[in-house]
Write a structure and sequence with these properties.
Residues 112-368 form the PPM-type phosphatase domain. This is PPM-type phosphatase domain-containing protein. GO terms for molecular function: metal ion binding; protein serine/threonine phosphatase activity. Keywords: Hydrolase, Membrane, Metal-binding, Protein phosphatase, Transmembrane, Transmembrane helix. Belongs to the PP2C family. By secondary structure, the chain is of the alpha+beta class. It contains 12 helices and 16 strands. Helix content is 45%, strand content 21%. It has 2 domains: 47-78; 103-367, PPM-type phosphatase domain (Phosphatase 2c, domain 1, 4-Layer Sandwich).
C-alpha cells in the first residue's frame, strides 16, 4: 500500500512540474532577432565579391608559399651536394653513393661496351639490358635497354626473346646477303615479340609493359629502333650530341592525334598520360591499352653512317637518366670520363641519382675509340 501511495505522489509531482514548464514555454515568444541579424551581417560581408576574391588570393598564397618551401629545400639539398662534389674534386677524391642508398647495382665491362644499372629509389628493379657483339661472327653488334613498368615480366621477356630472335634472323639474313634491310628486321622482330608478349600477358592477366631502345651496328652503319621513352644519343668527332631516338610522349602532337583517333584521350596526372594511366605512348606489352590501339609497339627507326659522324661514343639509357640529364649534358659529362670506370657509365648513373632521379637507372656506353669485340652479355642475372 505504501508503494502505491509513493508512486501516486511522484506522478502528481511530475505532472505539476510539466504543466509549469509548459506555461513558461507557451507564454514566452522566441527572440530570434539577434541570430537573424548576425546571419544578415555575415551574408552581407562574406558574399561580397571583394571578400571572395580576397579569400581566393589568400588560398593561392598559402599553396604558393607551401610549394616554395618544398622547392627551396630541394634547391638547398642540391647546392649542398654540388658543394660537396666540388670539394671532393679539389681534394682529388671521388664522390661515393652508398650501396644502401642505391639498393642494388649491376655492372659489366667487356671490350668497348660498358653497362651500369642501379635499382635506385624504386622498390623493385624493372630495367633490363643486353649486349651481343659480333653476333655469330657476322660482325654485327646489338645493344639494348628495356625499361619495364607495371612489373618486371615484360622487360624480362622482351630482353631475352627479342635478342634471341634478332640473332637468329640476322644470322639467317647474313648468309651471303650483302644488301640487308636492318631497319625492317628490327621493326618486324619488335612487333613479333610484342604479339607473343600480349598473348602470354592476356593468359596471365599481366598488365606489365616495357620500352625498348635497340641499336644495331654493322661496319659503318648504325641502326637504332625506339619504342617509348628510353633514349639514345651519340657523340660525334666534334663533341656534338646527335640524338639517336626521340621519346614517344602522349603530349606530342603526332602521338596525341593518333590516340584521339583510336578513341582515347590524354590526361595530366603528374605528367601527361595515355588515358590518364601510361606516361609513354608506345610500349611493348600493356595489353589493356593495346586492345584499342591507344598504345602501340611500332618502333621509330633511324639509320646513321658512322663514317660521316666519326663518333667517339654512344649512350643508351632508360629514362631514369634522362629525367635529370639533357642529351648535351650527358655527352659532355661522359666525354670527360670516357676513360674512367665503365666508360663513364658508373659516374653518370650516380650523378643522376644524386640529382634526384627516382627511377631505375640503366646506362650503356659504347666507346668507338676502343672498338674491340666482346662476348654475349645481358641482364639475365637481374
Amino acid at each position: 500500500m505504501d508503494d502505491d501511495l509513493e508512486d501516486e505522489l511522484f506522478h502528481q509531482t511530475f505532472l505539476s512540474h510539466m504543466r509549469f514548464l509548459s506555461k513558461i514555454v507557451t507564454n514566452s515568444p522566441l527572440n530570434a532577432a539577434p541570430f537573424i541579424y548576425t546571419l544578415r551581417i555575415l551574408k552581407f560581408y562574406l558574399l561580397k565579391p571583394e571578400t571572395i576574391l580576397l579569400g581566393f588570393c589568400l588560398l593561392v598564397l598559402f599553396f604558393f608559399f607551401h610549394s616554395l618551401e618544398l622547392w627551396l629545400k630541394t634547391v638547398v639539398n642540391r647546392i649542398q651536394i654540388a658543394v660537396g662534389l666540388q670539394t671532393a674534386a679539389r681534394s682529388g677524391l671521388r664522390f661515393l653513393v652508398s650501396n644502401a642508398a642505391i639498393k642494388s647495382e649491376w655492372k659489366l665491362k667487356e671490350g668497348n661496351a660498358a653497362v651500369y644499372a642501379i635499382q635506385g629509389r624504386r622498390p623493385t628493379m624493372e630495367d633490363r639490358f643486353n649486349i651481343i657483339t659480333d653476333v655469330e661472327k657476322t660482325g654485327i653488334s646489338l645493344y639494348g635497354v628495356f625499361d619495364g613498368h607495371g612489373g618486371q615480366t615484360a622487360s624480362d621477356f622482351v630482353e631475352k626473346r627479342l635478342f634471341k630472335s634478332l640473332s637468329e634472323r640476322l644470322v639467317a639474313s647474313n648468309d651471303g646477303n650483302t644488301d640487308i634491310n636492318y631497319a625492317q628486321i628490327l621493326t618486324e622482330e619488335i612487333l613479333n615479340v610484342d604479339k607473343e608478349l600480349i598473348t602470354i600477358a592476356k593468359q596471365r592477366r599481366d598488365i606489365a609493359g616495357t620500352t625498348a631502345i635497340v641499336a644495331l651496328q654493322h661496319k659503318n652503319k648504325l641502326v637504332v629502333a625506339n619504342v617509348g621513352d628510353s633514349r639514345g644519343v651519340i657523340c660525334d668527332n666534334k663533341g656534338n650530341a646527335i640524338p639517336l631516338s626521340f621519346d614517344h610522349k602522349p603530349q606530342m602532337l603526332k602521338e596525341r592525334k593518333r590516340i584521339k583517333k583510336a578513341g582515347g584521350f590524354v590526361a595530366f596526372n603528374g605528367v601527361w598520360r595515355v588515358a590518364g594511366i601510361l606516361a609513354t605512348s608506345r610500349a611493348l606489352g600493356d595489353y589493356p591499352l593495346k586492345d584499342r590501339n591507344l598504345v602501340i609497339a611500332e618502333p621509330d627507326v633511324l639509320t646513321f653512317n658512322l663514317d660521316d659522324l666519326k663518333p667517339q661514343f654512344m649512350i643508351l639509357a632508360s629514362d631514369g637518366l634522362w629525367d635529370t640529364f639533357t642529351n648535351s649534358e650527358a655527352i659532355e659529362f661522359v666525354r670527360s670520363r670516357l676513360n674512367g670506370t665503365l666508360n663513364g657509365a658508373w659516374d653518370i648513373t650516380h650523378q643522376a641519382f644524386l640529382r634526384g632521379s627516382v627511377d631505375n637507372i640503366t646506362v650503356i656506353v659504347v666507346n668507338f675509340k676502343n672498338d674491340t669485340a666482346v662476348k654475349v652479355s645481358s641482364s639475365a642475372a637481374l
